[in-house]
Every structure is written in structure tokens, then in C-alpha cells.
Queue: 4 jobs
Job 1
Amino acid sequence: MASGLDDKAKIEVLTRGIERRLGELLSAGVTIVSIRPIAADRAEGELKHVGYGEPLLVEYRGPEGEGRAVFRTAGPNWFGHDRRSDRAALAMLAADTYGEIPDHVRVLDVGALGSGGQIVPLAGTTELYLITTYVEGELYAADLRRIEREGRCSALDVDRARVLAEWLAALHAEQVTDPPEVYHRAIRDLIGSGEGIFGLVDSYPANCPIDAARLARLEQRAATFRLKLRDKSRRLRRTHGDFHPYNVLFRRGVDFSVLDASRGCRGDPADDLAAMSVNYLFGGALSRSAWKNGLEALWRSFWTSYLDRTGDDEVLDVLAPFLAWRLLVVASPVWYPSVPDETRDALLRTAEYALDAPRVELERLEAIAVSA
């Protein structure tokens, strides 16, 4: 939200905020003598650089004489700090860890800047929180569990799969104008982040029935997609980022809301498609009758509706690593400890097929996943 203040006014607000905050931290009255960039090639008093991550030397006077402190923000870059949340994590991690290192500078405070330049302290806090609105509804996962249990679906179930696909098609229709590095990050996070393929492989316990060498080979195959997808940045779209059945709430009919948009809401549409559709395969792998009399219809309604609405035939060329990621989740003994070993094997064989195939064929996915 815009503050309505010009840069000069924001600098004045910031200066007063630093002065007040230092006084609180030192339990004494403090007067700011000067604030200037530490970098030698910056002009004295060039406070506007605070928005670009320049460290500022703060000279102040208090009851015990003169003192110095450094005020710094983190600037955006393409090394995992392009989002505001990345830079917040840097500051919080520094506050939590600097004190563990001998001879390190001490952290006096950590906080955030308000839209008008004011200081919002976070020192002494524990976990960050989020307050959202509340919506009624039942998790879409409950629909899928019912179909698995009863072995059949209703016309409404098929309609809901169609509506979810159409909702994604509308969301993905917006081609965002972010630079290619945003797409590159989405692929990098898919492969190598703690929530991505590498993190999931790490989470498989040592005594699980899945052979470690098999997981390593799967991980290595997935890593090859880093370069394969590098020139696909034109596919960057607005995405939900975690579009699975536990993040969709249905009310009556096809009316629904979504929860927990993730991963910067930017990426390849294949991410959202894999996140939802793998759950139809998962249910079919658990119960062939549920697949034949219910989940197969949902799977086909979902994919047909999306492809018909978007014409994005290329998505099947890039789907593999996204599908493998989500299959690693549902095959995981950590996330789903009661899944039979033969089902886990079928899910991982499906991931292996996708990663090895030059192009994913939906019919082959069905045949492999539901073969157990």
C-alpha cells in the first residue's frame, strides 16, 4: 500500500525511527548525529540507497557519549533473494545465529520497514504469523477418499474435476511479465529445494522399503531437467503453487475456494496440473475398482478439460519432473506410512517412466500407476 510520502519524508521518518529504536535498545535518550552509506563511493547522506541494500553507518550521541551502529537492509538478487520473504529470512537467520560465532558483530535489533519508512521491530519474537479470512467448505480430499472407499463416482465428482481444470486454465492464461530468472528459480526449487525433489529424497527413512540407489537414480534423472527446461521461460505463468486436494474446499455443487498458494505463485502450469492430477493416479493405485469406476473419469475429465481449454500441448513435454516430485510425495513412507509396498513401487515406476520418456503420454501413466 502506498504511503503517500516522498523519498525525503520517508528518510526523515526512518531517521526518527532509528533514533527512537536505538534509545529503546540502549535504555537511554539518543540523538542521531549522522547517517551515511558505509561504501566509500557513495555520497555522504545518500539515504535513498537504503532501498538497495546498502549498509548505513549510524553515528549517535547518548548519555555515555558517542556510539556507532550499522543499519542494513538486503537488496534483491537472483541468487535466491528475489522475493521479499527471502530477504526477511536472511535477516531473521542473522538475528538467530550471529551470536553463536565468536568475535562476530552483535545483532542489536531485527525488524521491518513500513511503507512510510517507519521501523517495525521483530526482536524478541518467535514465530511469524498470518491471519486470513475464513471460508466454509469440505476438503476436496474427502471426495477422493469417498470414491476410493465406495469404488464409484458421481456426475458431480466429474464436474468438479472439470471445474478445477477450467479454474487452472483461467489462472494460467495470465502470462506474467517477470524476467526469465523467475522461471529458472521455479525449476531450481522444484529440483533442489527442501520442499522439492532433493528434499523429499532426503526425507525417505534409511530403513524404508525403497532402495536408496533407486531414489538416487530418480533424483539424478530429475536433475537433468534443470537444463532441459532452461529455455522454456516463456511458459512462466501465475500459478497456485500447491494445488492439491487438501488445499481446495468445496461447498455446494462446484463452488469452491483455495488455500495456501505457495512458491511465489509463479512457475510452469505443469506444477499445478501435476499437484492435483497425481492424486487421481494415487487413488487408482490404491484401488483398481475405484479407478475403473470413478477416478479414471475424474483424471480424464481434468486433463481433457484443461488441454481443450488451453491448447497447451507442450505441457506434456515438461510435465515429468513436476509429476515425479508429486509422486515422491504420495509414495513417501513419511507422508503416507500405511501405503502398501507394491503401491509405492507402482508410483515410483510411474515417476521413472515420466523422467525417461521424451514426452509424457497420459495413457502410459495410467497403465503403470494402476498396474499394482
Job 2
Amino acid sequence: MLAKKYNFKEIEEKIYRSWEKKGYFNPDKLTLGKDARPYTTMLPPPNITGSLHIGHALNAIIQDITVRQKRMAGFKTLWLPGIDHAGIATQNVVEKELAKKGKSREELGREKFLEEIWKWKKKYGNQILNQLKRLGASCDWSRTRFTLDQDYQEAVKTAFLKYQKKGLLYQGTRVVNWCPRCETTLSDLELEYQDQKSDLWQIKYPLKKKLKDGLKAIVVATTRPETMLGDTAVAVHPSDKRYQKLIGQKVILPLVEREIPIIADRVVDPKFGTGAVKVTPSSDLTDELIGQRHNLPTVKIIDKKAQMTKEVPEKYQGLSREKARKAVVADLEKQELIVKKEKISNRIATCYRCQTVIEPLPSKQWFVKMAKLKEPAIKAVEKGEIKFYPERYKKIYLDWLREVRDWCIS
């Protein structure tokens, strides 16, 4: 007698267990012809940060359709499943769970915290795999991988040594994207940008020597006055007639009383602010490049906790960047060095997982030399070996690769 209501859960699970038991998803257990060609595809490993969402379901279904079609066509078909430890993303969700219990990563220490990570992996890793099975995904579960499996870790180490022997790796100090909350570097692809209204201050930097026409100062524009404590130059565009007579002159850095030069660099936008910008090689990627071109010193004024270092005047040492900004502005106002403050629209970079505002910092890290690696990728597109649809993405890709910097992998 048929049931009044179709129990899809019970019936689908029964059918799926039968598929698994008979080894339909394992290419080594299928009866195939001797000349059967292999077809292998990877399941993009979902992060173990929680349950799967509708996007995962869509991608899995599309892959499953392809895999089943190849299997029916007689290919020796393998759909390899796996899950990803997700690094910072998993660290953050585990920290949030610990916070609910009144605990922190720092209190637990590294080893105990790793134990919590593995507990999370066991819980949500299994949940993710079961969700995929409920979708009917025809993966070979006997080959399930995790990106922290020991042999995977060994493969990463082997690749690292391989690139090092080829001379493609080096350790160097460079301004990187630093998340003060996660305490880690982030690649440009791991940044999220938020549009906001910010204050733009115009600040007078007194000239060391008053000019014959009576000019006593140059006015610079900045949204981050706290970083002026690490300035090592003021930059203007070489074609900007307003400032050509000032190129080569010296100014006295307010609050620090350090002599710094006025330099000319084509990267300066004459239309931004006053057309004169402060150069802080330790707190901005563009400024770092300017500093390298002009052999400027670097003064590291902000540490990995986003607090002011001992390189700044004593009264600002240990302050957070936000408190330091208020203190610096207050002191500049007392000295009547603030010319103007206005609101502007700008974008700030934040950590893609915790939304903390990124702090550009000089840090010693491992980098991959991209000059040699990018050339084959560029040539493959130029020769038509790789095609883009729509065509406009070809230019975007090539522009990005041609300007790519060495890749921070630490």
C-alpha cells in the first residue's frame, strides 16, 4: 500500500546508500572497457566555516550533471571531494564561539586554540559532506581530502622548496596589508572596500627658510594626520607650476621638528587636495614606492596592534591610531597649523573576514617573484591559447598581470 505522503528523506537516503554500497562513484569499482578514457574533476573545497548555502548547491549540481554525463558516456570518472580549512575565516568563527564562553585565543594559547579548530572541523566538516550527499552529489567519498591533511602539508612544503631552489622566493621587508585584529597579512584580493565620508585636513608645513616672496609654508592634504609623525618628505607633481620653486627646499615637520625635503614625483595628483602630499613610506604602498625612487628613510610609526611606536614623540607612544589622530589634530590646532577641514568621499580597505580597517605596515615576509611567472600567462592570452568571454576581460587581465607586484605568501 502506498503511503499518503511521499517521504523523500527516507527514500532518497536509501537510494544514496545503495549507490555508495555498490561503488558507483568509485572509478576503480566500475566495469569499464580497457580503452576507457579518464575524466577527473575537483570539487572546489567548501570552507569549514559553517553550513553550505544555495551557491554551493548550484555549483555542486552543475558539476554533478557533468560528472554523471561523463560516467554514462563510459569515461573512467572521478569527482574528488574535499573541504578547506579556510585559514583566517575559520579562525574568526572559532574565536566568536569562544567569546560566547568568555574565552579568547590569547588566553588559550596556540596549542589549545588549534584543538578548538580541529573540534570545529570535525563538527562542520562532516556536516558539509552530509549536505553534499543529501544533494545527491556523486563524489568518490573514499578519496575525501582536507587541506590540512599531512600529505597536503608536505606538498606545500615541497612546492615552497622547489620555488626557492629556482630562485623565485625571497624574504624582504615591504609595506603589506595588515589586519591588526587577525594579526596577519592579507593579499589585495582579500581586502574589502567600504565607501565612506572622511575628513580631509589641510596642514601647514613651515619652510626651513622663508622664500623671497614671503612664502613661509607649504600646505599638504591628508585623511590620516596621525601618520605625519612618520613623514620623510613632501611631494608635488614636477609640472605643477604652483610648487616648482619649492622643489628641493626643506620643511620642518610639525610636532616632530624633523627636516624633510620637498620632492617632485609624477605619481602625485595635482588636483587632489592642495596638490602637495605628505610622504610616509612606512604607512602607504604608494608612499613606499616614492620613498624607494627618492632614497627616503622609513620611520615605522605604527605597530602590528595599530598602536603608535616609540619612533614618535613620547606623548603619542602607545596610543591607538584613532586616539593618535585626535591628539595630533588637537596639537596642530593649538599651533594654528590646520588650514582647513572638509568632508570627502573615499574608500577604505578592510579585512574580508572581520571588517577591521587595514593598516599598511612594513613587514618582513616571504615573496614570490612574479616577473618570470607572469610572462607565460601573458603570452598564452596574447597568442590566443586562452580566450576570454566577454572579450573585454582580456584587457583587464593583461593590465592586471603587467602591473602585478611580487606576491606576499607569508
Job 3
Amino acid sequence: MKNNQNNKLMFSIQLINVFIGIIVTLIFGMIYMTIKSNELKGVLLGLLIVFGIFVFINLYKRIHNQNDIEESNIINTIELVNEDNEIIKQWSIQDKISFLIGKNNGDNEAFLDLNESIYSTLVEDNHAVLNYAAGTWYIEDLSLDSGVCIQKIDDGKKYRIVKNTPCSLKRGDIIFISKVKLLLR
């Protein structure tokens, strides 16, 4: 749904830019027809061409750069890895909005079930929750003791999350549920 809204917005912006270009061209055309001097007409035509090239190059760069940034931050999967960074399990989160990280038992249903990890004894049943809002994933620490840490891709530093306070996530960040390592891809 977000992609559809972005596409509509980009189309609207492009349509507005086309109309602005048509209006500017008509104004320059009217000025061009009323000027008698050929030298002045040549200078005006040259300025119009340079201005048009500059505007289109700038617009092209802006549109393509924004698409690259948006696509690079989309988180599609979460991977459970061991100490050697070998993937043990993988979960697709493309169609999710919110889910629990923890352990499944008779009363609890966690989407990211960490029972397969060697550190599962350190993981609580409801350890953390991930929520998707406004195009960004957020994590909240629900644990009593162990806590949740994040190693941010931006600076490589490890941060402990404050309980019940959402923390934004990006593709490439690493979540530590106690000693369990989860890669965001």
C-alpha cells in the first residue's frame, strides 16, 4: 500500500513539473516573439536550453536517488544466526505488521520462535515486539531481565533498548535478544 501511495505521489509531482515546464516554455515563447534583436533572441534561447537541461538533470537525480534510498531500507527477512554467522533459521516479514519475538509454549504464540537457538534458555516467552508504522519497523523490549540490544548499521555500535520505548530499525541492523543474534535483511 505504501508503494502505491509513493507511486501516485511521484506521478503527481512529475505531472506538476510537466505543467510548470509547459508554462515556462510558453512565457519564453511569448517573450521570444516580441523581441526584435536577433542577438538577444539567441541569448534567450541559449538560457532556456541550459535552464531546461539543468532542471531535467536535477529532477532525474532526485527521483532515482529517492527510490534507491527507500528500497535499501526495506526489511524483508529476519535471520537467526549462530556465532559463526551461519543462518540457522529465516523468517519472511513482508506481510506482517506486528509480531512477538520469544518462545512458543502452550499459552504463548511468538512469530519469531527462538527455541532452536542454543541460548533459548535466556530468552523469555514474550521478549520483544516488532511493529511496522509509517514505513519503518520499530522494536520494543518486553523482557523482565535479559533485555534487547541493537547493533546499528550506521555506526556499528551496540545499543541497549530502553524498556517499552520503540527504537527504529533499518536493513542491516542486528538485534540481540539476550545472546541470540538476529540479522535484518
Job 4
Amino acid sequence: MSGISSRLRFGLAAWILLVCGPVPRLTGSESSAPLPTSAQTQATEFPLGTATPSEECGACHQAIYKEFAFGFGADLKFQGMVYRSGREARLVLPTNVAPGSTAHSAAGVDPFPIHARDVEEQGRSCNVCHYPQPFAIPSIDTPEIAKPQARPKDQEVTGLTCASCHLTPDGKIRGPHEAEAPHSTVADPSMRTAAMCAYCHGAGKRVVGKQTQTFLEWREDFSKPGLGRQECQDCHMPRTVRKTAENFDVPARAVARHLWTGGHSAQRMGNSLSLVLVQPWKKQSGFELHVINIGAGHSVPTGSSRRGIYLKADVADSKGEMLATREWLFAPWYGNRPDDRAYLDEDKKRPDAVAAMQADSQGPHEPPIRAGDERVLTWAPPLKFGTYTFRARLVFDLNRYNDPSFIEDQTAIAERMLSFDVGDKPEK
């Protein structure tokens, strides 16, 4: 992948030189030369709207662009790919994204949403967030979250861009602070709140268990009950102190890193759930598995119904021979009801039949674990007298509809082991 990374670095450098011009090395008396102000820079407009390539923004906002496109500062191990479908010719990588990109930079080319657009109502429910037109940030208390409008098909190639979040409906660039820039700006403090994320991460009204409810889960289950004061950005966009435009006369201030660490981050997933194994009754084959949401301000898993967490348990004897296994799936529902195989025939009549059927074919399953909640599952495998080892693992899957043997998008969250005895030694 070194060749791709080299091309990416060269491409970024080319954009910087093209748009901002060469940056001189400052030595001696030159080091005190004043940096340009926005008034000394050619004005920038956005005729392409949210389809404006992020590279254009990266020419001046260099550090932010490196985070967005390359994942600088993140532990993401995600390689941007193009799903091999009929739309592959148009849905190409917007920035030749190398492993280490962010989920937002690959949102238009990640194979899973591309595939989803082919099966979920021809993309009508997907494109609004993967290719949004400019939108206004809603009130944080809005009961029902509407959706932005999708860009035209011929403007999909750039995917989710900087302008997708920062461009307002009236053509200004919004940010959390007042700023002078070579483009129209507006200060919007709500960019530092969870409301900024609501349009694409909170669909409609709150339905416990349903997919794409992350903002509503945060608001109703975490913020309102007082479980914490963190906004989405506090966990998913860790901050640093720096200039937002390196080669301009602007102040250094606290700036959110544009990483959006989440399902692609082993660190983020590993801090979300705790797993505890309990043998409640001495020398009896019965167990409790406690899965506790200790680290997320929303349900786990959250977001798309494709997200899933498997709890895999097994029991082995003293020789290491596997005697019993059990598996549970935690996942958001596709619709307003629990996924269930009983609805498969009914699903065939739906416009989104493929998507509904792939969800229902895996139901019933466990719903996601809400913020601060604890889920207790029980298992009593039939075992004779002896000494055994009970092992359980939590594994996060970015796309539970894949074949289970495909492990490239799976992340181990937690693993626990418990040695135990069953029964009294039989009399001779």
C-alpha cells in the first residue's frame, strides 16, 4: 500500500501548492514576515455545493484534511474500497483513501452502504446522509428529526465531504467560532453539540431498538437522565490546540480532530462494553453472562441494522475438548418492530424486500444494550461431574449480513474465562 500512500501525499501537496501557493521556508529575518490574512487571499465560492471535493478545503486546512482522509491520530484500520456493483464506475474513491481513513471520508465508497443502496429502496433512504445537500442544524430538543435532501446522482462521486457538514443552505461555511476567511463564514455554537450529528444519526422519532437512532439514544437514554454531560464530539472528535488554517494569520485554539472514531475503531469498541461471567450455584451447570454498557453514551451496537455484536460462549473439559457452544446476536432492528423470521413472507411484498428479508432472516435476536444498561443472559449446558472451562467473547461485526467466515470487518471487544466444577465426586 506504500504506493497508494505516496500518491495520496503527493496529491495533498499538489492541492496545497495549487490553491494556496508555495509556502516559503522561514529563516532569519524572514521568520518574522507576517502571514497572509483572509483579505489578502482570493475569495472562495462553492458552486458545487456539498459536492465540493474535500481536497479543495484541505489545501488550506491541512491538518484537518489529513485527519479526515488519512486518519491521522486514529486507530482506524479501514481500507476504502468500491463494492463491485452496477454503480462501481461512478462510485470511485474520492481521495484514493488509504488504510487509516475515517468513516466519513469513505462514506460514499464503503462497500456496505454502496451495497445497501442497491437493495434498500434503490438508495432513497441511504443517499440523504451519504450525499446530503446543505442542511440547517436542528434544535437539540426537536421531537422528530427530519432528513436532509440528497444530491443529484451526477454529484455522488465525491461522497461525504467537508462541505456536507460545514456548508449552510445559504452558501456560508459554518464553524464553532467567529472567523475571518476567504469565504463567507458564520459562527454556530451548536456545531459543538450533539445536534450537529442529529440529521444523519437520528431518524424520525425515538423507537427503542430501531436502527439509525444514535442521536435519539444519546438524548433520551444518556443526556436527559443525567448519565453524563458529554456531547458526541467529546468522545468521537478528541481535541487538540492548533490553527485551523496553518498558513494564515489566525489564532491557535482548541480544535476537534476530524476522526469520528466509532465502529471502525478497536479502541472505541473495546471501551464500550464490559463482560462478566458468573456461576450462581456451586457445582451446578448454570451460568449468567452480564453484558454492561459502561462506555457509550448511546446503545451498543448503534446505527445501521447491519451492525451486530456476537456473544460467543463455549465450555471445554479438562483436556480442552469442546463440549458445548452457544451464540447470541445483539443488533438494531431494521424497522419499528423486532427482526423476526415470521415476517419473511410478508417482506417479499415490500419495496425494500431484500433489505427487510436479510434483517428478519436473523431474528429474533437481542436488541442493542442501551446507555448505562446491563443485559443478563443465562445458559445451562448439560454437563456431568468434572472440571471445566467456560469461555465467552464479545465480537463486533460492521456488517452482520456478511458470511460469518468473513472476519475482516470484525473486532474483538472482550473475552473472559471461568474455571468451574460440576457435581460431587460419585461414590465407588
